[in-house]
Amino acid sequence: MSDPATPAPGWPFWVGTSWKMNGLPDDARSYAERIAAVDDWHGVLPFVMPPFTVLADVARLLRDSPVQVGGQNMHWDECGSWTGEISAPMLRQCGATMVELGHSERRRHFGETDQTVNLKVHAALRHGLTPLVCIGETQAERDGGVADLILARQVRLALHGLTAAHVGRVMFAYEPVWAIGEAGRPAPPELVAQAAAGIRQELDRAAGAPGVSPPLLYGGSVNLENAAPYAALAGIDGLFVGRAAWTAEGYAALARAAARPPCRGP
Ligand code: PEP
C-alpha cells in the first residue's frame, strides 16, 4: 500500500495547452470565457499559455476558475535593457502562475540553451512562478541512440543549482521534437513510457527521493484519439497540447478524454 500522504503516481493529472503565436484579443477572450464556463474538469488540473498580448485579459477572465495561466517564455532578469523581453514579475503582475521554458521551437529558432533555461528556472522560482520545462530529443538523436543521454542532460542542466526542495516545484514536459507540430508524428506510447522512466530516474535523483520529484507531462501531436492511451501511462502526470486544444471545445474535450479516477492506485 502507498502512504496515504503521498499522491499516487500520475495523480493529480495536468492537461495544459500553449496557444503559441495564436490568439487575437477577441478570439482569446471568447476562448477564455468558454473555458471559464466549464463546470466540471473531471479532476484534471487545467492550464493555458496564451501569447503575452492577451495574457492579462485571459487571466482576468479565468480568475475565478480552476484554470491556471502561464507565459510561453520569459527573461531571467527582473528588468533592464533587454529589448523585446518579458520578466517574471511582469508575468506575475498579469496574473500568470506558470511559465513554459525551453520549448524546442525556442531552442531551435531563438537560441534557447540548457544554460538559459536554467537561469530562467531559477528566476521563475524566485518570483513564485511554476516553470514548465520542455525537453525532447530530435529524430537524429533518437536514430543515433543518444535520446536518453540528451534527455538526462536537459533535465540535469535545467535543475542545476536548485535545492532538492526547489526541484519539486518545477514541472517537465517530455516533447520529442519529431512528434511536435504540423510535421509531427505521435510517439508510440511504449516509447513515451520508456523515455519517461529514464527521465523519472533523473528527476528522482535531483529531488533526492522517489515520489517527490516534479510532474512529468507528455506533449507532441496529442489529440482526442490518443489522449487516453497517453494518460494511462504510469510515468506520465499530464498532457501538454498544441493544435488539438486551440479551440475551447477541443481543449475541454481533451481534458475529459484524459481524466482519470482520483483514487487510481500505483
Ligand atoms: C508543442 O508544440 O508543444 C505541441 C505539443 O504541439 P502539438 O500538440 O501541436 O504537436
UniProtKB/TrEMBL annotation:
Pfam families: TIM. InterPro entries: Aldolase_TIM (IPR013785), TIM_sf (IPR035990), Triosephosphate_isomerase (IPR000652). GO terms for molecular function: triose-phosphate isomerase activity. SUPFAM superfamilies: Triosephosphate isomerase (TIM) (SSF51351). It is found in: Cytoplasm. Gene3D superfamilies: Aldolase class I. It is an enzyme of class 5 (isomerase). Keywords: Cytoplasm, Gluconeogenesis, Glycolysis, Isomerase. It catalyses: D-glyceraldehyde 3-phosphate = dihydroxyacetone phosphate; L-erythrulose 1-phosphate = D-erythrulose 4-phosphate. Pathway: Carbohydrate biosynthesis; gluconeogenesis; Carbohydrate degradation; glycolysis; D-glyceraldehyde 3-phosphate from glycerone phosphate: step 1/1. One of its GO terms (biological process) is glycolytic process. Its EC number is 5.3.1.1. It comes from the Bacteria. One of its GO terms (cellular component) is cytosol. NCBIfam families: PRK00042.2-1. Homodimer. Belongs to the triosephosphate isomerase family. This is Triosephosphate isomerase. It comes from Gluconacetobacter azotocaptans.
